[in-house]
Amino acid sequence: MRINKTRHRAIRLQNQIFTILFLIVIALLGWLSNRYTTQFDWTNGGRNSLSETSQRVVEQMGGKIKITAFAFEDKVTHTQISDLIGRYQHHKKEIKLTFVNPDKQPEKVRQLGITNNGELLIEFNGKSEKIKTATETLLTNALQRLNRAEKRWVAFLTGHGERNPFGQANHDFEAFGQTLASKGISVQIINLIETAAVPANSSLLVITSPQVALLDGEVALIEEYIEQGGNLLWLQDPGDLQGLYPLAEQLGIEFLPGTIVDASTQLLGIDDPSFALVSRYSIHPITKEFQSLTLFPVASAIAKEEGESGFQAQAILSTLERSWTETSPREGEIQFDSDSEETRGPLDLGFALTRTVGEKPADDDQPAKEQRIIVIGDGDFLSNSYIGNGANLDLGLNIVQWLNEDDQLLNIPARTAPDLSLNLSETSSAIIGIGFLIVLPALLIGSGFTIWFKRRRR
Questions:
Q1: What's the chain's Rg over C-alpha atoms?
Q2: Same domain, 65 and 177
């Protein structure tokens, strides 16, 4: 086709318009990339992005967060810290990161007690926290502590063989106590014979299966604490209540005789039927987002007593239908006995009790104070031996957060690191070694020789 001058000018004009439009599109894409960002993290466990736990913590914090990193002029350390803080800044723009070289400001470093290269100082709402190492777990826990309006003290009753929140024995609660401390919840133990009252700074009293009977005076002090509106977590293993029957009567609950046995545990390969499984949860702030199993070894069933106790009771933990309360020794083959005191499942082993205490404030916008109590027929599920099973740790954290009236922190689980190790047998290692050192080079050489030979024959 013959191109005349008019058509040639039209083609040139068309090309110029296309070039101009193409440059405009490139400029718009550049402007949009600065205004909006999209990230994709395909690594195992999302190691290069912020976890949902951390996202929820940082999004709940209203106000500016200042982070000062004390690090020497080290590009690797600066990059690691910047990348970590950048993940938080992606979800909250009001986070400011500043680097300080300890060599240039030694006096400030001494005043703040900075000892590690890469140590972070986090400041929020007039409060500050320091973390030695810049990791997501430590930083998120520090942000949670800073976001608390006031300090929380959880008092564990002691003096009667209860589980110790600082003890390392299998039945103790050291792991749970350390987790509470990392969330900004201070733990203390109290002996009512020595203190003669639950300390006024305690936001929560915890009773964990006494092994020795409490004195009448101690029980009276606990009843008085409940009467005054104190929050309580009562974890009671099967057996004697050790003098706490008046407390159960005050709360309007009854511990059923026997131990819960659950035939459903055989589906998970657990031979001991005294492990109770909970997989379905009622609609309650503590369990509303729970989808994982919780495991309760040697648990007791609980029932709501008839009569008026003043508390509204809601069952929050219930076993499956293939369970019952076994009153005879758990030896050999056991089965449900309808002619005994045994009760067939599903059984309730956890109750949440609430009631309004005091008078409603004059300001109608402020609700009246709500007293909160949790009673669970097992203490083993939070012990050092079993706290890592299923969602036991997350359930324990939610219970304490709810009892402390920190509802905004509910359902923020404790994140665990993914397993990054790869263990290979000697045979697998040998196969991989031979494949990379012999087979793969041989294939490359063979394909190269084949291509050369075919070209030579042409």
A1: 31
A2: no
The confidence score (pLDDT) of residue 436 equals 86
In whole angstroms, what is the distance from residue 82 CA to residue 99 CA?
A: 10
CA–CA gap between residue 327 and residue 439 (Å, rounded): 66
Helix axes 174-182, 392-403, angle to 10 degrees: 60
Report the CATH number at residue 163: 3.40.50.880
Cβ-contact 298, 238 below 8 angstroms: yes
Structure tokens at 152: 């929380």
Tell me, yes or no, whether 398 and 354 share the same domain: yes
Question: For 116-125, what is each residue's pLDDT tens digit?
Answer: 888 999 998 8
Q: Which amino acid is at 48?
A: N
Calculate what percentage of the chain has a pLDDT beyond 90: 34
> How would residue 219 be classed by pLDDT, with cut points 50, 70 and 90?
very high
Would you say residue 66 has pLDDT above 80?
A: yes
Query: Which pLDDT belongs to residue 156?
Result: 95
Pair 392, 301 in one domain: yes
Phi-psi domain of 249 (left: phi exceeds 0; alpha: psi -120 through 50; beta: other): alpha
The residue type found at 183 is K
3-state secondary structure at position 362: coil
Using an 8 Å Cβ cutoff, are 245 and 219 in contact?
no
My answer on whether 256 and 405 are in the same domain is yes
pLDDT band of residue 429 (cuts 50, 70, 90) is confident
Residue 62 sits in which domain range?
Answer: 44-145
* Domain edge (last residue) among 384, 409, 434: 409
